[in-house]
TrEMBL record, chain A:
Protein name: Uncharacterized protein
Species name: Actinophytocola algeriensis
Record key words, sorted: Membrane, Transmembrane, Transmembrane helix
Superkingdom, natural source: Bacteria
Keyword Membrane set for record: yes
From TrEMBL, chain B:
Protein name: Oxidoreductase molybdopterin-binding domain-containing protein
Annotated Gene3D superfamilies: Oxidoreductase, molybdopterin-binding domain
Compositionally biased intervals (Basic and acidic residues): 19-29
S-adenosyl-L-methionine as UniProt keyword: no
InterPro entries assigned to the protein according to its UniProt record, in alphabetical order: Mopterin_OxRdtase_euk, OxRdtase_Mopterin-bd_dom, OxRdtase_Mopterin-bd_sf
Species for this entry: Actinophytocola algeriensis
Residues annotated as transmembrane: 105-127, 147-167, 188-209, 215-239, 259-282
Region described as Disordered: 1-71
Ligase is among the record's keywords: no
Gene Ontology molecular functions: oxidoreductase activity
UniProt keyword annotations, A-Z: Membrane, Transmembrane, Transmembrane helix
Length: 144, 445
């Protein structure tokens, strides 16, 4: 089962390598830019995105009170993901001339509204968590 | 540090140990590994922990190997600096870094990649059909659904990929860099997997926005790398199968569940934010849908008449070519033939789709008119002189379908020039790029 799976994977990978070779050898720009976009993903992720996200997580875990950690982190993650997916719509120096009915909406405002909804959710979840942790600590607090 | 944290930086203990003697690199790992909180889950899927540590201690004192010769000496200032800023696998204490999390994210990421690969392959086959391949005209929404799944599963894979990579990120810093030949191959295959996955998701998301920060031809690149990406996924699953089985069989504790929940929440948010391009219910909800209602006659245009350099020509005649001769029909003559109205979607390879009401002459009627056998293949040529999609071929399964039209009207009005005036092809369950506009010639094959 495992061997079969591995051989299937290698066969698919091999076919992809043949296609990629044909693609890369047909034009110089294909080879250069194709390779740059291929290796760029892991490089930017491992060298920039992951360290920044990790350090931000570390910082937040020290700054934020415990009940607010999960909601704020979730809010930041959703904000980051939506912004990332929105980049090709928001940043278009390489975009084609706008086609009527395609990529012609106000994406900045749309994203801002969506993020407003997300952070309203964060606020509600944070308050709920805070309330719950107060209940849990209620005994201690009334005693003090 | 009493708190578990998402540390990617060197916490205090690494700076304390950084200046100790040169032979203790692996020893330090052992020492620190023994210090970490029980259950704080590092070195997730690295195989049994004893083996990696044992491999380290075996080599202790030799510090040799090919890799080390290219690295600065650990005693040099640069070497010490690198050791101080570079995190160690054991520094990562977030509950995210555990095989139980990795396997669950991987499962969903695998599902997303499988769906994306299969639907993408299908779209490729419909556009470049080999002899053995056939694609039905019914249900009319089939291509709309498969291509919608392609784009949505691709969007869903973005947060899943980030979450999964974060889950295994500490393994990037596992030392020694290379333990053995299989280990080197595995690391290389994971680099290929990550490169191909990022390539597919990035180019795909830029392509749906028709935004091209590169000069290569997108479909060829996206297609070739799709095989590399999916092949790497299958190989990766084969390599990790025992770990996946073990990890999925054990329940997830609350801290890890919270990380997973955040990942799935972000995935859901990404899907809802974009799925309105094809799901009518979400049309007014998705803020990042690249389709709008601003197209002429309420339908988006992917290539304008201006871009295709086509103008309205009163002398236009439709040419129907058979082996025996050419029949020419004016637009008035076409409009005098029995008309048929059908609700059919335009479903773009870029994932957006929208239904519209089309009126025109069924291709089957035109074939009957000139005496061609029903179900003949028809090659359609556009008035546009250049462009990758000026010619398309309607297979017999489509020319036989009564709803495959040479459309003259759209949503009750004369077809707009941008939608293919004087006449265009509209057929059920086809990629939008094959719904040829500004039709000039039909050749019965």
């Amino acid at each position: 089962m495992r061997l079969l799976l591995a051989l299937t994977g290698l066969a698919l990978l091999g076919y992809g390598a043949v296609l990629a070779w044909d693609f890369a050898t047909s034009r110089t720009v294909n080879a250069v830019q194709g390779a740059a976009w291929f290796i760029g993903g892991p490089l930017v992720h491992d060298g920039l995105v992951a360290p920044v996200v990790g350090l931000a997580g570390l910082g937040l875990s020290r700054v934020l009170p415990r009940p607010w950690r999960a909601p704020v982190v979730a809010g930041l993650v959703v904000t980051g993901v939506l912004t990332l997916i929105g980049i090709p719509l928001l940043w278009r120096p390489f975009g084609v001339v706008t086609n009527p009915g395609l990529h012609d909406r106000d994406y900045g405002t749309g994203l801002a509204i969506a993020l407003g909804v997300v952070w309203a959710g964060v606020l509600l979840a944070g308050l709920a968590q805070q309330y719950r942790s107060r209940l849990a600590l209620g005994q201690d607090q009334s005693a003090s | 540090m009493t708190e578990r944290s998402d540390a990617a930086s060197g916490p205090p203990e690494s700076s304390v140990t950084a200046d100790t003697d040169k032979n203790d690199h692996e020893g330090r790992v052992v020492h620190r590994a023994s210090l970490r909180e029980p259950g704080s889950g590092t070195s997730a899927a690295a195989g049994p922990p004893e083996s990696s540590l044992a491999a380290g201690t075996d080599k202790n004192g030799r510090r040799g190997g090919v890799v080390h010769r290219f690295l600065p000496s650990p005693d040099s200032r640069l070497g010490r600096f690198i050791r101080r800023v570079q995190p160690d696998e054991a520094n990562f204490r977030s509950p995210a870094h555990h095989e139980k999390v990795t396997a669950r994210l991987g499962l969903w990421l695998g599902v997303a990649f499988l769906l994306c690969f299969l639907t993408g392959l299908l779209s490729h086959l419909i556009q470049h059909p080999p002899a053995w391949f056939g694609w039905p005209a019914r249900p009319a929404n089939l291509y709309r659904i498969t291509q919608g799944i392609h784009v949505i599963s691709g969007v869903a894979a973005v947060p899943l990929l980030f979450a999964k990579l974060w889950s295994v990120y500490p393994k990037l810093f596992s030392r020694p860099v290379i333990r053995s030949l299989p280990h080197a191959l595995e690391r290389l295959s994971i680099l290929v997997l990550a490169g191909a996955a990022f390539f597919e998701l990035t180019t795909g998301i830029f392509n749906v926005a028709q935004n091209y920060p590169w000069a290569f031809y997108f479909p060829a690149a996206h297609y070739a790398v799709a095989w590399i990406a999916f092949g790497s996924v299958v190989l990766h699953v084969a390599v990790k199968l025992p770990i996946i089985r073990r990890a999925l069989a054990t329940p997830v504790d609350p801290a890890r569940r919270s990380f997973l929940r955040t990942g799935f929440l972000a995935t859901g948010a990404a899907v809802v934010a974009t799925a309105g391009v094809t799901v009518p219910l979400l049309r007014d909800v998705s803020p990042l849908s690249w389709r709008s209602d601003r197209g002429p006659q309420g339908l988006p245009v992917n290539r304008t008449a201006n871009a295709a350099r086509v103008t309205a020509d009163p002398a236009w005649r439709l040419e129907i070519v058979t082996r025996t001769g050419i029949t020419r029909l004016s637009r008035t003559q076409l409009a005098d033939l029995p008309q048929r109205t059908a609700d059919l979607p335009i479903a773009c390879v870029e994932g957006w789709s929208q239904s519209a009401t089309w009126t025109g002459v069924p291709i089957a009627d035109l074939l009957a008119l000139i005496g061609a056998p029903p179900g003949s293949e028809v090659r359609v040529t556009s008035l546009e002189r250049r462009g990758a999609y000026r010619v398309s071929t309607l297979p017999g399964s489509h020319t036989r379908d009564p709803d495959t039209l040479l459309a003259l009207r759209l949503n009750g009005e004369t077809l707009a020039l941008d939608h293919g005036f004087p006449a265009r092809i509209i057929a059920p369950s086809r990629p939008g790029v094959l719904q040829t506009k500004w039709v000039h010639r039909l050749e019965v094959l």
